[in-house]
């Protein structure tokens, strides 16, 4: 079975540019989570969706960050404009909606903003 | 907000040794999860615990959900080179039931 699929795996871009990260959750999972991982702060939840609806975006650091889930099989995390401090590994995870179901992670997008 | 304290931060052991790491919290959690992360990959679920006192094994891995619901440990027996990586605990509290709080991770290094 395919796991959570993220693209691109690596992104290097100059500050000020728009960055779009993509995620395809596991089929049948209707909860989707976006995380950011850095050495300093570890794994931080940015936002999560249930049935394509954003439930909690309190972890989104600034208005420069936005996330969408237009359908059950696709989500994007966008940073516009990007800054060097946004450099991190961004993970997408999915789970079944029931609260006790574990989250399964993709392999992440390593983002470097120059 | 809820926080998890995971220890130790790093471990350097010999192949074949047993490993123990734990997570503690000042607040109650309803679920404890243990993940392993290899370089360049996402965290992979190892064990999920749902009841206070629950003891669950997955091969050489054993994890327990503390009776107070504020802690959990993970043991690895007879370590092998492929056990190298970063281990994370994660807890799901009563409030915001779907949100996971992650520990800082334990980096395991094994000398052959």
Question: Which terms summarize this structure?
Answer:
heterodimer, A: 114 residues, seven-stranded mixed β-sheet, four-stranded antiparallel β-sheet, B: 112 residues, mainly beta, five-stranded antiparallel β-sheet, 54% strand, globular
Spans of at least 5 consecutive residues with low confidence of chain B: none
Helix content of chain A: under 10%
Shape of chain A: globular
The amount of helix of chain B comes to: under 10%
What is the string of SSEs of chain B from the N terminus onward? EEEEEEEEEEE
Derived structural class of chain A:
mainly beta
User: How many angstroms separate the termini of chain B?
Assistant: 41 Å
The number of E-state strands of chain A comes to 11
Q: What is the average per-residue confidence, as pLDDT of chain B, rounded to a whole number?
A: 92
> What can be said about the biggest beta sheet of chain B?
6 strands, mixed
Topology overview:
The complex is a heterodimer of chains A (about 110) and B (about 110).
Chain A: E1 5-7, E2 10-13, E3 19-24, E4 31-38, E5 42-50, E6 53-56, E7 65-71, E8 74-79, E9 88-95, E10 104-105, E11 109-113
Parallel strand pairs in A: 2-11
Antiparallel strand pairs in A: 1-3, 3-8, 4-5, 4-9, 5-6, 7-8, 9-10, 9-11
Chain B: E1 5-7, E2 10-14, E3 19-24, E4 29-37, E5 44-49, E6 55-58, E7 61-65, E8 71-76, E9 85-93, E10 101-102, E11 106-111
Parallel strand pairs in B: 2-11
Antiparallel strand pairs in B: 1-3, 3-8, 4-5, 4-9, 6-7, 7-8, 9-10, 9-11
